[in-house]
Amino acid sequence: MSKNEKKHSSEHDKEKGLRPNTEKGVGQFLTTNQGVRINDDQNTLKAGERGPSIMEDFHFREKITHFDHERIPERVVHARGAGAHGYFETYESMSKYTKAGFLKESSTKTPVFVRFSTVAGSKGSTDLARDVRGFAVKFYTQEGNFDLVGNNIPVFFIQDAVKFPDLIHSVKPEPHNGIPQAASAHDTFWDFISLMPESMHMIMWVMSDRAIPRSFSMMEGFGIHTFRFVNAEGKSHFVKFHWKPKHGVHSVTWDEAQKISGNDPDFLRRDLWESIEEGNYPEFELGVQIVNEEDEDKFDFDLLDATKLIPEELVPVKIIGKMVLNRNPLNFFAETEQVAFHPGHLVPGIDFSNDPLLQGRLFSYTDTQLIRLGGPNFHEIPINRPVSPVHNNQRDGHMRQTINSGQSSYHPNQTGGGCPFQAAMGDGGYAHYTEPVSGKKTKARSQSFHDHYSQARLFYDSQTEVEKKHLKKALIFELGKVGSKQIQERMIAQLQEVNVDLAEEVAEHIGVDTPVKLDKELNQSFPADGNPQDFQSGPARPSVKKSNALSMEHTKTTSIQGRSIAVLVAEGVNTATIQKLLEQAKAEGAKVTFISQKLGMIKTMDNGSLTVQKSLASSASVLFDALYLPQGTKSDELLSKSSEAVLFVEEMFKHCKSIGMDDEGSLLWKATRSAQAVHDNENAREGIITNGNIDQFLKAVAKYRFWKREGSSNIPA
Fold this sequence. Notes:
heme binding, 20 strands, Catalase_clade2, metal ion binding, 15% strand
């Protein structure tokens, strides 16, 4: 972190009332929460050394009471998360579109706090569950807090917020037995989905590898809904928000995800924390898709439908700034756990659309914080405090921290001199966009929301062949866990509407005959008047048939920043190429880890020494992005006799990752079935660098996966 960035962060902390890290202080006495110094924190007050404890021990009662109440209700959704501080910097003025102060001038820096999360699981679940990932950003602007609360997927399961409790209840552990945890592969979830055609687009995303990201810093983020930009003249434009990771978009395979969950269920949390500590700061660029208000109805879908996206071929993403995450939280609970996001936290120049899912979220988020954080004063918790001054007539409530002086707690008033005053628009006062609204009160859905399959088809058709293969495997796994034949058949019927070949292959593996006829109940909803409403009003004719932006294989970069490279070593290893690998990898922001049969120092071939950071017993190949095998006759011989080392190499090969080595004739490489696979099939050689060329190896690491290798050999690692 630069001096300016450190100064910026410390000033922000001071404004938010944060305490310094007292662990580094000198001469500090242990005290009670009232500031009274404590002279014995090892024993309770007793009536005699072996007598009963005495109630007047105020120190013990304060300490145990705090302990008893340390846990707050976890979030109903997004319970498991990780957070980081940073800043957002604007590239260019957006005043043509919005009067939001933090977007009006180039180079403006705004402090942010970001929380990444899974959706379905509890706080104790694994990071690598197949799930949507939350991507929530709190901007501490000079005009107040702006929360951009989104996901790593640009669409959602449902169109109307009234169905949100049903969706979450279906994916949570089943109520009769409380299982499974953090998993959608069970009857109730797929029962719900099979009866909700509007979910099919989201299902394509969740069954893709997007749902098992390699890193929080290697996934895209989306605001999901259509919002509004409003400029100083009151002109409105519709806007969709995108976060584009500078480190590229990457995932793990399902086999890796399951093994990582066993080896390190905190894998994504740990990666974020360590990357920031090591100075490999995650960076994202903020992009917007801007639509003129008069063009609202020109698309073959409804901008207010949260199950739809705007293809980038129709409206390109304009990059307007970058976000850098450069500081870890001082305290996980106080910051990451207590941070309260809300899509209704807006600043002048940004407004809502009439998206019915967004409209419901505006109520739900505040309601959730009230019970989770104990009352209406959650905005006074340091991590939630704005940097702009707060002046209003709100008083009292649970855990109130502000001490307000004066006798006026109402407005208008004369006793307080009329303060605080209302701010006119020219003084930065927030004014909602004056959109004309008319219509009958009704519980109905617009006909423009009735196409549920065209964008699901667009997503599937936009995937590469290997991505389609992984999506099919995911559906086979998930639906194979469903016990009800009827639910399986309904899902195959839904998949037929997306892609017939996809449906037939999944059906074959789960034992369902095709074609399956859609039940009448699937394509109809029943409003309050009891009359069925057709959900698919006719064949959709989408204007975009394929979009490269929807495929992760088309959104990669040449960067290796944030990657983790394993090097297998043993006594007598040759460090000639290792030193070059260390220097170049560090310069490009990648991490190199030495792994051997045991921890400690080992002697190198030139009688030097090398520190082993991980042992084969406490690590696994799935925790790394690439592998290098250096020379050394003694080292090579020792590792070739290690079954753990052989498995490490074979798993790297199976998962199509880069493998570099000084010499293809090494005993360790020859001891693996991978070497035979390369000998038998030229496709299997892709991504195997055998000439000790570090430049070539690191280029392969940047590519990350070599999918031709998948299926070219059958390595049962």
